[in-house]
Every structure is written in C-alpha cells, then in structure tokens.
Amino acid sequence: MEREKAIILDEKAMQRAIARISYEILERNKGTDELCIIGIQRRGVYIADRIASKIAEVEGVSVPVGSLDITPHRDDMAYDCGKDDMSDIDFSPKDKKVVLVDDVVYTGRSARAAMEALIKRGRPRCIQLAALVDRGHRELPIHADYVGKNLPTASGERVRVFVTELDGIDKVCIFERDEK
C-alpha cells in the first residue's frame, strides 16, 4: 500500500517548469531549425505537447511533435511480439535535433529504450533528453539535458506525475510504502 507523502509540484509549478524547459531548449538549439519534440508514452507525451505549445507561443513556429512507444525496447519486462507499436511519429527524425521528453528520469532505462527505438526510425543529428522530474538513482550513464525539478529520493519512494489529460489534475507527488 502506498500513501502520498508530499506534493512536489502543483499546477502552477508544473507550468513554470515546462516553460523553463521550453526556453532552455530554444536557447541551447538557437531556435527551432531542425528541432522536433518526441514524448515517451504515456505522460511524457502530454509534457512534450505542452513544451511544443510553449515553443510555438514564444517563436511563432510549430515544431513537429510525436509520441514514442518504448515497450518493445525495454530490458526490464517481457514483450509480446504480437503487440502493435503504439508510437505516433509522422516525420523522420533523420538529421533532426530531437528532444525526447519523459515525465520522470530514474534509472535511465526508459531513456535508453527510447534512444534505441528512435534510432531505428532514422539517425538524428543529436538526441537531447528533457524530464519534468529527475530523481537520481541511475543504473545507466544517462543525463537529462533539461530538468524541471531535481528531486533526490529514497529508493523506497515513488514519484508520480499527474496530468490533467489522464488524471484530471496537474501535480507531482512523492508516495511512500505504508509499513502496515
């Protein structure tokens, strides 16, 4: 059983973090030329959409946005080969500056799977990683380029991102196991 320990980001704080990430992406990439945003399913997709919307608001230019299903590339779960890849990317990442977006970066395994899935679609010029929350505890040498909130956590804690599109609310919380 888990119980909510603390709210880390509320709706306004999430908006500010996403805006900051968007500005940092624009600054580092010197605008939107050859830039695309790809969200890692599930919640990374909604955060990617919000980043792309903020970039369009600031620059007056829409960047291509897609969603990436990493399930076939995960190393921590069995995959049913008959299951469809649920990615939705209607552009080639070949020679593009790709920003992969995830809700939480933890061990680095999701990011590794995302890079593998992305490269199979075409070799990007570069891959950058954006995360709303970075909680540390890496098992792989993966580093997020853009982070909304660095959040050192205990390994027994769980970070959950809630988005209005799926959950009816925007917030980030830490949950801990009930010792009962």
CATH architecture type: 3-Layer(aba) Sandwich
Could you name the CATH class?
Alpha Beta
CATH topology: Rossmann fold
N→C terminal distance: 8 Å
Q: Give the number of DSSP strands.
A: 8
Radius of gyration: 16 Å
- Overall pLDDT level: 93
Principal-axes shape call: globular
Q: How many separate structural domains? A: 1
Beta-strand fraction estimate: 25-35%
Low-confidence stretches: none
* Individual helix count: 4
Structural class: alpha/beta
Helix percent reads 25-40%
Largest sheet: 5 strands, parallel
Strand order of the largest sheet: 3-2-4-5-6
How do the helices and strands follow one another from N- to C-terminus? EHEHEEHEEEHE
Report on the structure:
There is one protein chain. The chain has 180 residues and is of the alpha/beta class. It is 28% helix and 30% strand. The chain has one domain: Rossmann fold (3-Layer(aba) Sandwich), CATH 3.40.50.2020. It has four helices and eight strands. The protein has a five-stranded parallel β-sheet, with helices on both faces. The protein has a three-stranded antiparallel β-sheet with strand order 1-8-7.
